[in-house]
Structure prediction request, 579 residues.
Amino acid sequence: MNVLLISPHLSPVDFEHHGRLEFPRSLAVLASALRFAGHDAAILDMPALDLWAPNLPAILRDRRPELVGLPVHGSPAMPIAARHFRYIKEALPGVPVVVGGLVPSILGTELFKTLPEPDFLVLNDGEQTLVELADALENGADLRGIPGLISRIGDRLFEGPQRPLARELDRFGMPSYDLLPMDRYREEGAPVWLETKRGCPYRCRFCSVNTPSSYGVVRFRNPETCVDEIEHVVKRYGITSFAIADDTFNLKQRYANRFCDEILRRGLRIRWNIDTRADCLTRDGLDLMCRAGCQNVMMGVEVGSEEGLLSIQKGVTRQRLVEAFHMVRAAGMRPTALLITGLPGVNHVDFAETARFIQEADPFLCNIFVFHPIPGADYFHRPDTYGLNFAINKVDDWRKLHYFTEPICNTQQLTRREIIEHYVQLNYASRSYFDKTARPEALEFIARGPYPRMREQVVPVKVATDYIYYLPDGPTSKDAYNVYANVFQMTRFQYEVLLFCNGQHSLDEIVDRISRLFGLEPNTARKLVLHNLERFTERRILDPSWERPPDSQPKGIPEVAIGPAHIVSDRLTNGGAMS
Prediction:
């Protein structure tokens, strides 16, 4: 059977892929399983090929696949998936479509209430289930009894028995790198994702990784086979940058040591990053990792107070976290702190403690996220227990759960507005993903303790259905754009273009402004402005449905060029902008 696996753009707020591409490892693994079983498989990595959903019909009609698969890796990607499914069904109405990924596996049959287009849903480990689905479709066999598969036949859903978790993760051989545009990842400096294990034994309340179907079971690959894969990528494609996809790389230090020893034994000169936990690190293990090429160590801190860590069931102490950051730096690597603002049970005092933690731990970088209750997390499935009130009723609601967008509900300790203030202030004060400049005086101000709530401490700027947030007393001129972000992670160019889409400027005026600001030739500036305006419209930051007054649009200017007057305003001075 001819199977096409599609990797769409990740989410509606991942502007320009954060400057890099994301390697679709899961699809390469699934393709290998299909080929191992005798099926034909192909992968379409749309971000790498600069393709968008409207490009799909022509591609599909040309390739004529017999089965199309598409993953949904996170809740905010649900609307993106829905759009792609509609294009697939439009181009190939009789061809079955299968969906998989973490969120669909958690939701199960509930997925079809907001995403009715797929014909099949593969649950959890997808390799064997996808192979058996392709076999059954090819042979006209009954689909309803396939383990790990939900089938939509007419108006009815049929769920097969639960499939045991895969134990032999190397059974189908090396991922199908030959089906991917590896030169694009090399050119963009995008790391190749590598998986050494699956599963997580921890029970953090905010996390979706430990799903009911896994029961905390962790399955390990052979470390020598993992390094075989690294060596193949280095020698065949010239890529030397890798990211370990494991939730906790150092879960078993002896295993991590075998992996590092094998890299050193083969003399592979590579760079790689990991995610791990503070209580899994040892000094000797870190020294060995550094010698084997590990450069960045990301650790989930979430909140910097002892009480906050207990409330989210993190299972590690504040002191152990501080020590771990110092150990990573001493070993010669860069420690990154992953922090979440607005977690249930966390208040203004914990926010000040988090600032003090940053002062003490001195992370190389802070990646700061906004709390959202996501499928699989305790906060999502038992919101009443934690005093959370939110609703996900339609497919577009899922986009609200992106960790860089505004919170969807108050907690018992903080309002939505206060959560945003914490997020903006912490990004401003620390050396963060959005701004590598540390501001010790701002961090010290937060660390002193809860401060008075200032009415205009953080100012929202309306952009269509969402907001951008910034500090009115923060940096000005060229630095003002990235205070913080613009929850959509825009480049400065995009931000400057957006500021002039207020219904008061013609396209020529916008182009002239951008041309002078960035030192661009007028024709180049015009192309870039139009390109970004189209992106804004597609992402619903500009409202394409707005009807302009008669004769308000200068002659010859594309309709997308002029935004509605309410799209971007000056600083909003009333607190009513947030609800």
